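Re: [ENG-882] Designed sequences occasionally contain unexpected residues at chain ends

Forwarding the minimal case from QA. Structure tokens:
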């Protein structure tokens, strides 16, 4: 067996391990922004975004703020445009990418007036009804610490709530997601989408990605401030975030089983190869015998 074949088999095994990404959904501390990702095509994941430009979000829906205050959506979607993100707080996939990219892009707005609290509000709503205000508080603290402008805390809102209100909000912006209760943690599949709202709560613009360019986002916020409705996002494909747990979800169990199977197969293969080589290796040549290099004297 040539060494290159053995190396190739090892590379395949390592690739399979690297492609299986796991995390512990019971960890309540906010994940490090940009740490890991679990993404898929939105169409393959069975989720989508129906862009409802000029539609109205229901401002009477009730949610809990990160400080435990019960509010209506209209209490935080007002006075200026709103950047709306639907995520869930245990997510370390594209949710983290969206939130990280948003802060990075907002940090790129250098004019004094282009600051959260004057330019826009930020409203992040969890689509997991099991998320609580403590998780929302930790998430807000983690990302607010990355924002380079001071004294903007009052215009960042991380909300939790009950599924009926979550669904009504999601439906109003055409945000289709899957939520499945399990014996452990729920399985959540959702698309990536940032929505810009006018001060009155009308849908002005969509960004169907996990990365946001400063100029388009700033322009859309300025347009929304005067009630303008932007154009459709023509992104060809929609990213989806699939929540997987290496120890409880069926999807990850299958990945884990495949990885374990390949590891065992690899060990058996190596063991058999070593055994075979030990049986077929010729004894050491004694002094004065044929040249062990395999080359003749005339070569």
């Amino acid at each position: 067996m040539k060494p290159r074949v053995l190396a190739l088999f090892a590379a395949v095994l390592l690739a399979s391990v690297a492609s299986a990404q796991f995390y512990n959904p019971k960890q309540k501390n906010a994940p490090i922004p940009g740490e890991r990702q679990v993404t898929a095509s939105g169409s393959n994941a069975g989720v989508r975004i129906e862009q409802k430009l000029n539609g109205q979000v229901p401002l009477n829906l009730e949610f809990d703020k990160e400080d435990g205050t019960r509010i209506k959506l209209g209490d935080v979607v007002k006075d200026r445009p709103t950047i709306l993100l639907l995520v869930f707080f245990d997510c370390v996939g594209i949710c983290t990418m969206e939130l990280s990219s948003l802060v990075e892009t907002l940090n790129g707005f250098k004019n004094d007036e282009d600051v959260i609290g004057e330019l826009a509000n930020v409203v992040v709503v969890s689509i997991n009804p099991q998320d609580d205000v403590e998780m929302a508080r930790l998430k807000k603290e983690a990302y607010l610490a990355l924002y380079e402008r001071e004294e903007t805390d009052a215009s960042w809102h991380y909300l939790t709530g009950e599924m009926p209100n979550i669904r009504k909000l999601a439906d109003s912006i055409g945000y289709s997601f899957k939520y499945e209760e399990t014996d452990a943690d729920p399985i959540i599949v959702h698309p990536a989408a940032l929505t810009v709202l006018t001060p009155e709560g009308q849908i002005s613009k969509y960004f169907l990605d996990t990365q946001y360019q400063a100029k388009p986002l700033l322009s859309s916020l300025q347009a929304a401030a005067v009630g303008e409705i932007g154009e459709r996002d023509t992104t060809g494909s929609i990213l989806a975030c699939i929540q997987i747990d290496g120890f409880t979800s069926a999807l990850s169990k299958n990945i884990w089983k495949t990885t374990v199977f390949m590891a065992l197969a690899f060990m058996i293969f190596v063991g058999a190869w070593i055994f075979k080589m030990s049986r077929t290796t010729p004894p050491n040549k004694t002094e004065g015998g044929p040249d062990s290099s395999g080359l003749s004297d005339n070569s």
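QA comment: On inspection the terminal residues look reasonable. The mean pLDDT is 77. Proposing we downgrade this to a documentation issue.
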